[in-house]
Amino acid sequence: MSGSLVNLEIIDPYAQGLMSLAKDQGLTDRFGEDATNFLSLLDESEELKQFLASPLVGADAKKAVLRQVVSDSFHPYMLNFLMLLVDRGRISLLTGVLQQYQSLLRDLNQTVLAEVTAAIELTEEQKESVRQKVLSMTNARGVDLETKIDPDLLGGVIIKVGSQVVDASLRSQLRRIGLQLSSSAA
Predict the structure, then answer these.
(1) Rounded to the nearest 5°, which phi and psi values hold at 123?
(2) Do β-strands 111-118 and 142-149 pair in parallel, antiparallel, or remain unpaired?
(3) Could you tell me if 155 and 119 are in contact, meaning their C-beta atoms sit under 8 angstroms apart?
(4) Does 103 share its domain with 115?
(5) Which keywords label this protein (predicted)?
């Protein structure tokens, strides 16, 4: 069994448990916000990520740092969930658990995740345009955007929703023109 499959077998029950608690308490969206905020914290701080994953750091130290980092901004149930992961030695899987929770939340809300890669940061107007394009491509009620910057694109965007990819990048358009020119010259 591969490592990622084993992790998924561990991650999914924790994410399902968190979703079950969220549904029972009417906190699904609140937990989603907390998950998004904590994933952002982990993305911004490699030190925090390494600290939490380190087997050399004791559970009490990890709990103290988590309490300090989330303070009053997270729901107490979410903080308790983080403490549970520390107690069970699963805090190193936190990113996967929170991402899986977000996936479950998107399913619950009939929302899709659109991964957008652009040459430059998109304006709010451009993001809304991408959302509308994705809504027209899918039967979803909502769209969550995850944007990445890739200066190699030159211009335009690449939108990935599940297995569907819409490549509207300038690089892709130039490649198609090049192929058309080479096939017409032959």
Answers:
(1) -75, 165
(2) parallel
(3) yes
(4) no
(5) ATP synthesis, CF(1), Hydrogen ion transport, Ion transport, Membrane, Thylakoid, Transport
